[in-house]
Amino acid sequence: MFRPARSGRQNIRCWRPRPAPMSKFVLSLLLAAVLSGTAQAAPPQRVISTNLCADQLVLGLLPRDRIAAVSPLAADPSLSAAASTARGLPVVMPSAEDVIRHRPDLVVAGSFRERKAAEIVARQGIAVHRLPAPDSLAATHAMIRALAARLEVPEAGDAMIADLTRQLADAQASGGMGRTALVWRPNGYTSGPQSISGEILAAVGFRNLAGDLGVSRSGTLSVEAVLAAKPDVLVLDEHMNQATSRAQALVVHPALAALAAERRRVPTAAWICAGPSLADAARALAAS
């Protein structure tokens, strides 16, 4: 508003609105937002893992009182390297309904089979951490660090990686000494040098012949190709060396009896998942 000054000049005063008092409703909303942010920042206390590989990482990083449930395979010693740790924990089926029923504050899931269930769970406001499918030891380390950070136990993640690295180094000291090897799995699947299994073979000192046969990461070989390659060592998964299916029958094909290669059996649970159990695979390969 304008008022003439006594001096004859105009003195301009700007009108400024006074801030309205903040309503109780707005204050309550702000307080709720602050409290909600605080709650979200707290470490998850009811963690569920929904597949075998998630189980082994969660069991290795968290105390039992922070684990609400694990997958049905967690306590299977033929597949799970953490079977003894998993015994006695509640089991969750890989369905959205069962996961929600356990009231988790974080679900650790894989990237593929549980994708649909994980999406439904996330829509219910439950946090979901999806594990990647690492294809190297470096990617495995990154996966462990990321999960440990999400669980807010970074020191446990660093310790897990350090222990795995140390054990691989120990296995290398008594390993393959330059001998040739081939991984031989059901349906003729093998692992090339640019795979986790291939890195474990190299860490122990073996030369992986799969690369010479055109397999860099993973692929299949015929029985004839294996016979012609003449590896010093044929690496078999421990619980898959019986002809209980058509796929497994190839592993024990009669023609392979003519192969003079030493057979070394690695517990399937040791390298079915990328994680700390890879050290067990290295020890099995290094054993003479």
From TrEMBL:
It holds the Pfam family Peripla_BP_2. Residues 1-41 form the signal peptide. Residues 46-288 form the Fe/B12 periplasmic-binding domain. Keywords: Signal. It comes from the Bacteria. InterPro entries: ABC_Transporter_SBP, ABC_transptr_periplasmic_BD. PANTHER family: MOLYBDATE-BINDING PROTEIN MOLA, VITAMIN B12-BINDING PROTEIN. This is Fe/B12 periplasmic-binding domain-containing protein.
